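The records we work with from here on pair a chain with its fold. The integers have meaning only within a learned vocabulary of local backbone shapes. A complete example follows; check for yourself that the lines match position by position.

:::
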Amino acid sequence: MSALFPLPAYRARYRAQQTALLLQSLVTHQLLRVVLGMRIVPNDAALAEVRRRYFALLQRDLANVEVGVYPRDLLFQMPIGDYARKLPMLMRDLPRVFSRSRRGDFKDLPSEVSLEDYPPYFRRNFHWQTDGYLSRRSAELYDLGVELLFLGTADIMRRQVIPPMVRFAAEQGLTRPRILDVACGTGRTLSQIARALPNAKLYGLDLSPYYVRQAGECLTSLDDVSLVADNAEAMPFSDGWFDIVTCTYLFHELPRNARRNVLAEIRRVLKPGGLVVLEDSAQQEDSGAVAFFLEQFSAEFHEPFYRDYLEDDLASVAREVGFDSVVSEPCYVAKLVTANKARAPALAV
């Protein structure tokens, strides 16, 4: 890859790719604003700050490649052809999404699904998306929708969980770490982790069996990955089984008590000294001028627990359930939180 794309060329190619994705996403955003009647316009400070953070994220992604944290081909792994084929399907579905939004019908879910199998907070169509998280069609369209929502940066933000994982594995001398991705969705995060840590034994857990099936299709090229459809509040894993646990974009969709239950379960299944890497939306205390976009997201999309999440600092919750060495840092419109499970104290002799 490096022979094909010397440094200036691959940077130019990357910038061109992201510019094309940005423009396509902005067109989609404008369409949404017109159809949904979104009239509130961000102020200049909010726009300037989100632009600054956007370009800082792209630079961070390039820097991670240049210091060897993950391979260069991850910059170009987005399945553009697949997304192009699915775009007409997504656009045809938008009238149903708009109608559901206008009606405020968050309970419009597939009639054949047994909702009693899921916790109450999950029995809704987050983002007004058709079928919520409870159909194959939803799982097939999810990644494309998220990329458009985040201006072509969804995969970039997902892979920002990788650098602390790579550093930790090297520091601990882990030649074959066990890694769990909680709320693994369609497997996009796991697929990128596998490229950076090819010797890892990977596990994924998600509450939606439809998304777990989609993840299985995404990860067919991997020999060593185990996926399970289950509730992160009561994981079917032994105590202290994993070296590393990661979780991307789950906590803002959980009520307050469930956030704590999931973090406590993550701590339980981690080995003493193990690492957790969380990525989720920025919150009130670290959002700065981008707070405008966070508040609009809650108002315009069906995210019933998001406003509470904005005030429920994720790093503080991690400390509350017993994690040590908690570090939080901003990442575009998201935040990264890393922490460790304390090792048991040595017994006195």
